[in-house]
TrEMBL record, chain A:
CDD domains recorded: ABC_NrtD_SsuB_transporters
Family to which this protein belongs: Belongs to the ABC transporter superfamily.
Keyword Transport: yes
Domain ABC transporter, first and last residues per copy: 21-248
Tagged with keyword Nucleotide-binding: yes
Protein's recorded name: NitT/TauT family transport system ATP-binding protein
Keywords, sorted A to Z: ATP-binding, Nucleotide-binding, Transport
Recorded superkingdom: Bacteria
Automatic annotation (TrEMBL), chain B:
Superkingdom: Bacteria
Subcellular location(s) of the protein: Cell membrane
Transmembrane region(s): 117-136, 148-168, 180-199, 232-255, 275-298
Protein name: NitT/TauT family transport system permease protein
GO cellular component assignments: plasma membrane
Keywords (A to Z) from UniProt: Cell membrane, Membrane, Transmembrane, Transmembrane helix, Transport
Pfam family, one: BPD_transp_1
Membrane topology of this protein: Multi-pass membrane protein
Record carries keyword Transport: yes
Length: 273, 310
């Protein structure tokens, strides 16, 4: 059943975007007056793309991701996920969300943490077990299923939280600065792993980051954003090949993309504070 | 062993202070007894002694200080005397096969324990129900929470007789129920406050995560809020059961009760038998210690099974 549904999506995928935003606005009413978190966002994300959102704090990159996940409600424009409203697509289990903090339950083992969404969604015990084994293998944590979160390093905890987001076969993976709290070396390693995972699973990934090298290394498309109001200043389709060893970061192509991202960030930033 | 040593050190210091305090506290009594026995004391007149400070009395009658440690009705009994009285009214009676005699503190402790446990169960249930209502309803939060705090500012000693009178008025016989109510009145508050804090302990990200799974409110409660509140709950329960015991004893004090540790304290006071008061006091302290230790053990076992402690 599920495979048929997936195949259908792939057939359509080339033509219709998975995530489509048209002149999307989101204004928060605060005590200090309205805050324009998102303003006139136009963006199409195709099936299997790896899209990074980069920009300074307050540029709305996280807010956009939360809109896609139906955690925030836009105040204007249109936003569709798999051709449905964000709310409907959430109910259809369209995406898995990975937060900056791994947020594993300390009273559950890694296995049980991964089982959490499966329990809520009503999968049978047998299916839960089968899926846990599969996603633990995907994030290379097969031997750690019986451990508690505190027994794992920060990087491993974040991998476990990615496994949890993968467990229910959502086609879209939304990641909000998942490696932001980790050190450079661990982050490099996880970036490599994430690319491998993306290649194996053919997911569509939306990835929020502060790091230019991370954005360029991972993405097929880089969305550069700027604050007040939160808007898109540049969309860069990466010329880099899908196969990316870590040392690709020293090639002229890589540096050229990084340079363009930096220019975009500089252009969007008023330096008025 | 690591935790036992500091506890025993503090206990040793307390007992040392206690022994030191017995001398000034009992010097008057010791001099009265010595005077009646015909010994020479300074000053010889009881009224004059009344106006003299205990320190001067001790300085003038050093040979009578020791007698203060073995009076029949001391102002302040020594730890040893309290221990002996406690043994006489518990262990010794049990050895004689009459542990439930009306003179036995085991009997009175059992009466008090029953009310305490009923009050604890009632108070915990009320506290948890209140906390759930407060966490899930803003209206309840705004309306119930201030009253919960105000309820704890009313002195329980003033409230206790009223609760007893009112409950007998509505036809409740015996003192068990009103005592349990008084006990629950003190016990529910720490449980309520702790559970509110515990149920609210999951952060926004945790709740957002469940939202991305389209989890129902009940699922969020059972899978996230309730387990996350467990450490808070046990801390509250330990405070709660101690409060419940205090509530029960207060409920036994001003109400003409004849059984229970509180009644023993009051009767000891009325009949001028300080040893009985102190023995009942010690029994109450031991009971509280046992109850709290039991809950602490339960906490360790539960949290360890939940994998929350190393």
């Amino acid at each position: 059943m599920q495979d048929h549904a997936q195949a259908a999506v792939i057939d359509h995928g080339t033509s219709t975007p998975v995530i489509s935003a048209k002149s999307l606005d989101l204004t928060f009413q605060t005590n200090d007056g309205p805050v324009h978190a998102l303003s006139g966002i136009d963006l199409d994300i195709g099936k299997g793309e790896f899209v990074s959102f980069i920009g300074p704090s307050g540029c709305g990159k996280t807010t956009f991701l939360r809109c896609v996940a139906a955690l925030e409600t836009p105040t204007g424009g249109s936003l569709t996920v798999n051709g449905m409203s964000p709310d409907e697509s959430r109910k259809a289990r369209a995406y898995g969300y990975v937060f900056q903090a791994a947020g594993l339950y300390p009273w559950r083992t890694i296995e049980k943490n991964i089982a959490l969404p499966l329990e809520i969604m009503g999968y049978s015990k047998a299916e839960q077990a089968e899926r846990i084994v599969r996603v633990l293998d995907l994030v290379e944590l097969s031997n750690f299923g019986k451990k508690y979160p505190w027994q794992l390093s920060g990087g491993m905890q974040q991998r476990a939280s990615i496994a949890r987001a993968l467990a229910f076969d959502a086609d879209i993976l939304l990641m909000d600065e998942p490696f932001g709290a980790l050190d450079e070396i661990v982050r490099d390693h996880l970036n490599e792993q994430l690319l491998a995972l993306w290649a194996r699973t053919d997911k569509t990934i939306g990835f929020v980051t502060h790091s230019i090298p991370e954005a360029v290394y991972l993405s097929t498309k880089i969305v550069v954003m700027s604050p007040r109001p939160g808007r898109i200043t540049d969309i860069i389709d990466s010329p880099l090949p899908k196969e990316r060893p870590l040392d690709i970061r020293d090639t002229p192509e890589f540096l050229a993309v990084a340079h363009r991202v930096r220019e975009g960030l500089r252009a969007g930033h008023a330096y008025d504070d | 062993m690591r935790t036992l040593f500091p506890i025993l050190s503090v206990l040793a210091v307390l007992i040392a202070i206690w022994y030191a305090a017995v001398a000034p506290m009992n010097i008057r009594g010791a001099l009265d007894v010595a005077e009646r026995a015909g010994a020479e004391v300074v000053p010889p007149d009881a009224r004059a002694r009344f106006d003299t400070s205990v320190w001067v009395l001790m300085a003038n009658n050093p040979e009578h200080i020791a007698a203060g440690y073995s009076l029949d009705r001391p102002r302040l009994p020594t730890p040893q005397q309290v221990g002996q009285e406690l043994w006489k009214t518990t262990g010794e009676m049990a050895l004689k096969g009459r542990p439930m005699s009306k003179r036995s503190l085991i009997y009175h402790g059992w009466i008090t324990l029953q009310s305490t446990l009923w009050g604890f169960v009632l108070g915990t249930a009320l506290g948890m129900a209140g906390a759930i209502a407060i966490v899930y309803s803003r209206v309840v939060d705004m309306s119930l929470m201030p009253w919960a705090i105000i309820s704890q500012t009313v002195p329980i000693v003033a409230l206790a007789p009223m609760i007893i009178v009112l409950s007998s008025q509505v036809g409740i016989e015996g003192r068990g129920v009103p005592k349990a109510i008084i006990s629950a009145y003190l016990c529910y508050f720490p449980v309520l406050v702790g559970m509110v804090k515990g149920l609210r302990s999951p952060g926004t990200a945790q709740l957002d995560l469940l939202k991305t799974y389209s989890a129902s409110g009940l699922q969020a409660f059972l899978k996230l809020r309730l387990p996350a509140s467990m450490p808070y709950l046990f801390t509250s329960l330990k405070i709660g059961i101690a409060a419940a015991l205090v509530g029960t004893i207060v409920g036994e004090l001003p109400t003409g009760a004849i059984s229970g540790l509180g009644a023993r304290i009051l009767i000891g006071d009325q009949f001028g038998t300080p040893l009985a008061i102190w023995a009942a006091l010690a029994a109450a302290a031991i009971l509280a210690g046992l109850l709290v230790t039991l809950l602490d053990l339960l906490q360790r076992i539960t949290l360890r099974r939940m994998g929350m402690q190393a």
